[in-house]
Amino acid sequence: MAEYDIFTTVDIGSRYTKAAVVSYDGEIYRVLAFAEVESRGIENGDVKDIASFKDNMNRLFDELEEQYPKLGKTEFIFSYSSNRFSLESHLERVVLAEDESEVLITEEMLEKIKDDSIKKMSGEGTGYAVYHFYPKRYIINDLRNVFNPVGMKARSLTMEFIAVKIDYPLSEMIKSILGDFIGEEVTVYSSHISSAEGVLTLTEKDSGVVVLELGHDFTTVIAYLNGIPVSMKVVPVGIKHVIKDIAYVLGTSYKEAEILLRNHGSATISTQNEEELEIEYRALDGRTIKRVSVEKLSLVINARLGEIMNKSRRIFKDLERDILEYRENGIPGGVILTGGGAKIKNIAELATQVFRTNVRIGTFCRSFPDEERVEGAEDVVDNAAFSSVFGNVVEFIKLIPEEAGGIKEKSRFLKALKDFFKNLF
Ligand SMILES: Nc1ncnc2c1ncn2[C@@H]1O[C@H](COP(=O)(O)OP(=O)(O)OP(=O)(O)O)[C@@H](O)[C@H]1O
Ligand SMILES: [Mg+2]
């Protein structure tokens, strides 16, 4: 029997696959193991080489198992990144009474509308698989807008909801590979939604905030309002392009360029200081030693990151204009930077210059500003590259209703939830 309060969570990125074993007792998240490997055999959520994909996952699980031997008994949650994920708003209207009478709206009714909507949108027929579902608001008798209609009476009820979906064949392929690998049906999420879930505070999600996930292949801009994601857009430029620029300008390999970015890079233009005037690196032949100034390196990085930030800012401005609440109040939470790119030195300074709003770096432990709810190595809990790893657990746990009580009760609920997902996909 699985211990449902211990999770093995894996985020498959285009450059790195990150994973952790996390326990949750209803209050505290404890990191029991973690690992990171370079991703192989997968591109944009599409598995291109099953053998090397599996080899790679095996290496990752071996590393985790060394630290936590009972890995097989945990609940597995996966996420992957892809620019094929889309977020859309939909309406689902149900007639509750044919005549003039009104019917009392219950929690179960809302669950049923939700289940029916997901079923309607998913599968071969529609071409999509729904990964995340958030009720946004309800309209009673086509007239009154409410956030929670439970306990009210109505003849008709319309649910406005947000769905995050991806192409069905792509989803089927990855789910079947992961399912075969684990030996049971797995829960799979969008890396991008999970990255936001893993770093935002409840207040930020409620009052409005924008997450900039600085990934390897591309950048994702996700907006939250009233506790749920309301927009997700992709800027087709990522840290990969910064690395390529460094490699091209300095005449070196992508590998060496990535090391230069991590160890000596700066998002803002550095003015040289005495002891770190120049850095040495290897040319393409792997032997010749070359030199570059810290300033020149930062110029290359700053140019491309500036492009990423400016393109993201355009999306930010559009959101401020198009979403009524934002138009009236602005985006109070400002911009939260996350993903591996958020670890580039001085990135928050650059984002502040470009966005002219409050900016912070988003990591899991910082999503609980007033409470100590996360225990584990700072290497991961305060690491912006691991945000989706933890967001997966946050997203999974969110589906447990308050009434589920203690974690023992929750375990039973999680089992039911698992069966629900099994039937769904
Ligand atoms: N400490 C660091 N300093 C600078 N750059 C870093 C650092 N750590 C990671 N990066 C870079 O950030 C980028 C994004 O890393 P991340 O692990 O988020 O990628 P990914 O999840 O594989 O990509 P994607 O989400 O686009 O599929 C990578 O190109 C990586 O090299
Ligand atoms: Mg990622």
Strand content: 25-35%
Shape: globular
Q: What is the rounded Rg?
A: 23 Å
The CATH topology annotation of the domain at 86-168 reads as Dna Ligase, domain 1
> How many H/I helices?
13
Low-confidence stretches are: 404-409
Helix content: 25-40%
Bound molecules: adenosine-5'-triphosphate, magnesium ion
Output the CATH class name of the domain at 86-168: Alpha Beta
**Which sheet architecture does the biggest sheet show?**
6 strands, mixed
Structural class: alpha/beta
Overall pLDDT: 92
Which strand order does the major sheet show?
13-6-1-2-3-21
CATH architecture of the domain at 86-168: 2-Layer Sandwich
Distance between the termini: 23 Å
Please tally the β strands and state the result: 21
3D architecture notes:
With 425 residues, the protein is α/β, with parallel strands linked by helices. Among the domains are: 86-168, Dna Ligase, domain 1 (2-Layer Sandwich); 239-303, ATPase, substrate binding domain, subdomain 4 (Actin, Chain A, domain 4, Alpha-Beta Complex). The chain contains 13 helices and 21 strands. The chain has helices spanning 50-67, 107-121, 168-182, 191-199, 202-207, 239-250, 254-264, 294-322, 324-329, 347-355, 378-381, 387-398, 407-424, and strands at residues 6-12, 16-24, 29-38, 42-43, 46-47, 75-80, 86-95, 103-104, 128-140, 144-146, 153-154, 156-167, 187-190, 209-214, 219-225, 228-235, 278-282, 289-293, 335-338, 359-361, 374-375. A six-stranded mixed β-sheet has the order 13-6-1-2-3-21, with helices on both faces. Strands 16-15-14-19-20 form a five-stranded mixed β-sheet, with helices on both faces. Helix 6 packs across helix 7 and helix 6 (239-250) packs antiparallel against helix 8. Bound molecules: adenosine-5'-triphosphate and magnesium ion. Magnesium ion (MG) binds at residues 13, 81, 191, 215, 339, 388.
